[in-house]
Each structure stands twice: as structure tokens, then as C-alpha cells.
Amino acid sequence: MVPMSESSSLVPNAWLLYCRPGFEHDLVAELCTKLEAKGSDAVDRLEWQMDPFSGYVCASLPAGEPANVLHQALRLNHLIFARQTLVALPPLTALAPDDRIGPIVEQVLASGWSFESICSEQPDTNEGKALSGLGKALQRPLESVLRKRGALKRRAGKRQLHLFWTAGNAVQVAMSFPGNRSEFPNGIRHLRFPHEAPSRSTLKLEEAWHEFLPRDRWEDALYDGAMAADLGAAPGGWTYQLVQKGMHVYAIDNGPMSPALMKTGQVEHLREDGFVWTPPVPLQWLVCDIVDRPERVIRMIERWLLSRWCRFSVFNLKLPMNRRWEEVSMCLDGLEERLNEAGITHVMRCRHLYHDREEVTVFVELMD
């Protein structure tokens, strides 16, 4: 991260993060736990703004204390409940309808930072979505002014300026840095639903692949002819994605599968219990979207991984109504511990994806 200019008079002391509305407390619990685990002494000095169902949280340090230390300590791809992570300036409120741009320009110039692009955003709520037109209308005039004032440049370390509108007269100016941000507006990856898929749950697996597997690895991991298992498969939303990649799939579920999927000849439907079924040979992929208690799903996944029955796995953990962060961290820590005890080298990541609701998606790759 490029350091602040010595001439800067306004230090960005706020840490702004987006999340799914209703998960604000879970995100704050995750952030505090992970900061304390890193030995950070900032937790006691943070002042939190986290209105229920607002779709964002903001942690402010005392004036003059930069928030980029927190931003760097907990990177976005290591967080579960955050969609976006930004370093922010104090909110601008009571903006005049005839001059919203002026105060924004003044604050940006006072920060001493320059940027290559601007992104107008708003909370992922019904009220927030109504503000999208305002952000779009102001963006071009704002770009023109900032370019003339030298704050918007062709080369500025790929930094991006974010305008987070919370009301027609209120905005928070924030900034993001390459390698530690979502490249999608509002931190949301929108995918097109394939109408031939048997359920909308198909988007969960597609988003997981985009999130956890770099595109240059798809040929190695998602190849034609690979073998996969889909536990809790019916009616076939996740199986559809596997079939589209040319895989042969064991679909394990007592419920009916999509007739169109069965006609492909790539699916073997077994009416068995996914918690006890054993594959006849080691597979490339295990996927699972079974609705059950997280600890029961984790024990099943653990059996697969310790037995090395698959190389890659993607599975969802359905979350309780309360203490969701505590439940997720307990499950993941337990799985991590048992894999380490078994000497199994692996990569594990977990994210609350856009197409998830009351669940998180976990990815595990066995490395040897």
C-alpha cells in the first residue's frame, strides 16, 4: 500500500466493510476475533457502527490513527462474512442537493490520495438500491472535477475511489487497493441463471468456483471426464454444473433428479444416504449442499478428506439463527485440526457468497 502523502491533512481512520444484510454482528464478531488472534491492540479503541440489516459495518479509530493497518492485517480473501473491505474517511452528511460534489472533492483533496477510477456504491438493501441512480448521475461530473484537480490520474497504483451512499444527502468516501478488494461493485458477483438448470442453487457452486479457483486452474481442476459426487443432489442444481464441465457424477439423494440431467448419460442416481455412502473409487470432486446441522456435515466431510476420497471439495454449512460466527469457526477449526493431525497438506477457504443465504460455502483442496 502506498503511504499517505506527507502533506495530507485528513487521515482515513475508518474501516468500512460490506456484508449481507442481517450479518453485521457476525462480521464484527469475526473481525474482533481475528484481530485479537493477531495480537492487535486496536480492538479496544474501535468505535463500531453496525445498524441491523444495513448491509455494512464501519469501525473507526481515534482521529489521526490510520485504518490501513487493520485493512492490511485482515485481508478480504481471509474473511468469511465480508463482501468488500475499504479504508474510509469520516462520513459526509447533510449534503446540499444543489452541491453534493463540492464537499466530496474537498475531502478527497484533503486526504492527499489519488486514484485511477471511481465506483459509486450503496448498501444491498431496498433503500440502498434506490440510491443507485444518484450515484450514477454524479459520477461523470465528479470524475471531471477530480481529474482537473489532479486527484484522478491515469496511473495511481490502481487505487480506486469508492463513494458509499447511505442516503441522498449522505456519503462515505473510501478507497481500495489492488490485491485486497473485490473487483465487483458492492462486492457482489452477479451470475446469470441458466434456465435449463433444475434449481437456482446451481449458482452457489458456480460462484464458489469463481471465488476459490483462479481461472487459469479450471482446466486442471474442472476437466472433461473427471469423476464427482454430489451429496444431497436432488433435483440437480449442483450436478448440473458438474455435468456442464463434462464430469461423470454420482448423484446421491433419495429425492428425484431432473430428467434432463439423467438423459445426459453422465449421471448415476443412487437413492442412498449421503452421510454413509462411500465412493467405489477416489474422485476428483465432492460437492454437498445437504440441509443438516453444520457439525454433522463437517464430520461427513472429514471422513471423505481423511480417507482421501476426493481431491477437491465444496460444501455448504447451514447456519443457526444466533452465534453464526462461533458455529462456523468451531466447525472449521475442528476440521483444520484433524487434517493437520493426519499430516494432510491442504488449502481451506470459507466465504459467505452472494448466492448463499443462511449458509457459508467451504472449499478444501488436498495438496498431496
Automatic annotation (TrEMBL):
The active site is at residue 318. InterPro entries: RlmM_FDX (IPR040739), RlmM_THUMP-like (IPR048646), RNA_MeTrfase_FtsJ_dom (IPR002877), rRNA_MeTrfase_M (IPR011224), SAM-dependent_MTases_sf (IPR029063). Pfam families: FtsJ (PF01728), RlmM_FDX (PF18125), RLMM_N (PF21239). This is Predicted SAM-dependent methyltransferase. Residues 99-176 form the Ribosomal RNA large subunit methyltransferase M THUMP-like domain. Residues 15-86 form the RlmM ferredoxin-like domain. It comes from the Bacteria. GO terms for biological process: methylation; rRNA processing. Keywords: Cytoplasm, Methyltransferase, rRNA processing, S-adenosyl-L-methionine, Transferase. It comes from Zymobacter palmae. Residues 199-260 form the Ribosomal RNA methyltransferase FtsJ domain. S-adenosyl-L-methionine binds at residues 201, 234-237, 253, 273, 289. One of its GO terms (molecular function) is methyltransferase activity.
